[in-house]
Amino acid sequence: MLELVKAGGWPMIPLLLLAVLAAAIVVERFWTLRRKEVLPPGLGQEVRTWATRGQLEPAHIESLRRTSPLGELLAAALDVRNRPRDQIRERIEDSGRHVVHRMEKFLNTLGSIASAGPLLGLLGTVVGMIQMFLGILDSGVGDVNQLAGGIGKALVCAAAGMIVAIPALMFHRYFRGRIAGYVIEMEKEATALVDALEARHPRPVVRPVVASTAATAGA
C-alpha cells in the first residue's frame, strides 16, 4: 500500500486526507443517527399519555426537549398546545426544519468529498501524464522505466480518486435516505400528539347563523 501511495506522488496526499475525513464523518453519523437516539422507543406514546392526563409541567417539556430530535419536535408542539391546530402544525414544521438541519450535519461535506475525489484523481492522472511526456522529451522513448513511472502514477491517482469517491457517495445517499425515513416517522408521532391534544381540548363547533335562521323560519 505504501508503495502505491509513493507511486501516486503528491496528489495522493489530499486524497488520503479526504479518505480519513470521509471515514470520520461516516463513523460520527452512524453513531449520531442511531434509531434509539433519534426516535426513542415508546416516547411518542409516553408524551401522548402526558397530554391526555394533563401532566404537562414546564420541567417535563424541557426534559423532553433535551432527550432526542423526536423529543424536541414534540416539545415544540406542547409549547403551543392551547393554540389552534394550524398554529401548532406551523410550530412543528419550524422546529422540524432545525431538527433536520442538525441531522444532516456534515452530509454536505461528505457529498463534496464524493465530488472532489474523482477530480483529484484526474489531477493526479494529468500530473503523471505530464511527467511522462517530460521524461520522453528529456530521455526519448527509449527510457522504459520513465515511461512506466508516469503511466503508473496516472493510473494510481485515478484509482485512488474513485476509491475515495464511491464509498463517500454511497454513504451520503444512505444517510439522506435514513434521515428521510426518520422525518416521516417523526411527522406521524407529531400528528398523533396533535390529535391527542385536540381530543382533550375539543374546539367548539359554531353553527352558521344563516342555517339556524332558516331552520327557525321553517318551523
Show the helix and strand layout:
Elements lengths: L1 H7 L3 H21 L2 H4 L4 H11 L4 H10 L1 H11 L5 H19 L3 H33 L4 H57 L8 H10 L1
Helix pairs in contact: 1-9, 2-8, 2-9, 4-6, 4-9, 5-6, 6-7, 6-9, 7-9, 8-9
How does this model look, in words?
- With 219 residues, the chain is mainly α.
- Helices cover 84% and strands 0% of the residues.
- The protein contains 10 helices and no strands.
- The chain has helices at residues 2-8, 12-32, 35-38, 43-53, 58-67, 69-79, 85-103, 107-139, 144-200, 209-218.
- Helix 2 (12-32) runs parallel beside helix 9 (144-200), helix 4 (43-53) packs parallel to helix 9 (144-200) and helix 7 packs antiparallel against helix 9.
- The N and C termini lie far apart (95 Å).
- Mean pLDDT is 82; it is low at 204-219.
Strand portion, in percent?
Answer: under 5%
Alpha-beta classification: mainly alpha
How many helices? The count is 10
C-alpha end-to-end distance: 95 Å
Counting DSSP E segments of at least 2 residues, the number of strands comes to 0
Mean pLDDT value: 82
- Contiguous low-pLDDT stretches (5 residues minimum) are 204-219
What is the helical fraction, as a range of percent?
A: over 70%
- H/E element order: HHHHHHHHHH
Shape: rod-shaped
**How would a textbook summarize the main sheet?**
none
Q: Whole-number radius of gyration?
A: 30 Å
